[in-house]
Amino acid sequence: MILLNKDSDHPDYKKIKNIEKQVQRGASLTKQLLGFARGGKYEVMPTNLNEIIRASAKMFARTKKEVTISSKYQEKIWAVEADQGQIEQVLLNLFVNAWQAMSGGGELFIETENLVLNADNVKSLEIKPGRYVKISVSDTGVGMDASIRERIFDPFFTTREVGKGTGLGLASSYGIIRNHGGIIDVKSEKGKGSKFDIYLPAVESVVIDQRSEVSESVKPGTETILLVDDEEIIIEVSPEMLTELGYDVLTARSGDEALEQYRINKDKIDLVILDMIMPGMGGGETYDRLKQIDPKITVLLSSGCSIDGQATEILKRGCNGFIQKPFNIEVLSKKIREILNNHQNVSV
After folding, report:
1. Residue 20 above 90 pLDDT?
2. What is the pLDDT, as a whole number, of residue 212?
3. Model confidence pLDDT, tens digit, residues 229-288
4. Which residues contact 286 (CB under 8 A, 6 or more apart)?
5. Is-contact 76 40, C-beta < 8 A?
6. Rounded to 5 degrees, what are φ and ψ at 155?
7. How is 203-226 classified by DSSP, letter by letter?
8. What angle do CA 140, 29, 141 make, to 5 degrees?
């Protein structure tokens, strides 16, 4: 909010940007911890992994020009049920790990493959027999000996010097893939590079692509939004963000207050931003009771974490989307427009 009213040449601009950067680093660390804890899936949908990998590799290649990337993608790749943001995080962790193992540059090879694994195939992988999509990420780096290879998925284990790595990248990646019903397998020898194989269960579903790059510009609107949250700082700051974007804002600090506000203002509220974790009546119950008042209600769920899969369950019951805290004004504005525009198109 402060940055919106300051030019880039203002003496405080760089300091505030650094504060924002540190907050984002803290949020990223929390996401990795959630990934290691085998939680954090929010929007799971049928996904074409080739598209996710191509986009992630392209983004990585722009920043690490000393790494040569080649690829081989399976034609007519099977769909997998995945949280696309979490899979992007896993891929980025593997790409960064490969880059760190190739000081001075090297080659990164990515491959996807449809596989049917039988009982004999899965004995060493700790997964069930069936149809899988395999992602392989290989590098020409320094490789690993057996002692390092056995520990790479341990939380906080890192071969980098103090302050250069958290030791959570591969640990969180392992947790995320396990949470998707898959497994990561690693093959590596000292001086001969490394190869990470990811196996994710395939599904018979139509692929849904909801990935989108965050725009640096805000996307305004004119609708009315009901913000439901028990946190003081959210109730204080978020309405300012929404007002700055052009929206009319109503607030509620509890589930009961949200129901009351919606009953009174049902005809003019276009979207509800609903916190998942609140004392008393939680987000899930509040959502269900709001749906009883208005079956066509449009709701954006928000939370800083996933508690026993509640977010996924609420989304399955028809909630229109999810946004993870902390969010900035660009991400918030984009998510709101996605949901409202989709809702308006459906209504038409």
Report:
1. no
2. 46
3. 999 989 998 999 899 899 999 999 999 999 999 999 999 999 999 999 899 999 999 999
4. 228, 255, 258, 259, 274, 278
5. no
6. -65, 140
7. ES--------PPPSS------EEE
8. 5
Q: What is the C-alpha to C-alpha distance for residues 84 and 43, in angstroms, rounded to an integer?
A: 8
User: Rounded to an integer, what distance in angstroms lies between the CA atom of residue 70 and that of residue 53?
Assistant: 12
Q: How far is it, in rounded angstroms, from Cα 185 to Cα 190?
A: 17
C-alpha of 67 from chain center: 25
Q: How many CB atoms lie within 10 A of CB 150?
A: 12
CATH 3.40.50.2300 for the 224-347 domain, yes or no: yes
Confirm if 155 and 36 have CB atoms less than 8 A apart: yes
Total Cβ atoms within 10 A of residue 80: 27
pTM of the model: 0.64
Question: Cα–Cα distance between 130 and 118 in angstroms, integer?
Answer: 7
Answer whether CATH 3.30.565.10 is correct for domain 23-203: yes
Domain boundaries, the chain: 23-203, 224-347
Q: Which of 71-75, 97-101, 156-160 has the highest mean pLDDT?
A: 71-75
The amino acid that residue 190 corresponds to is K
Examine residue 46 and say whether the peptide bond preceding it is cis (omega within 30 degrees of 0).
no
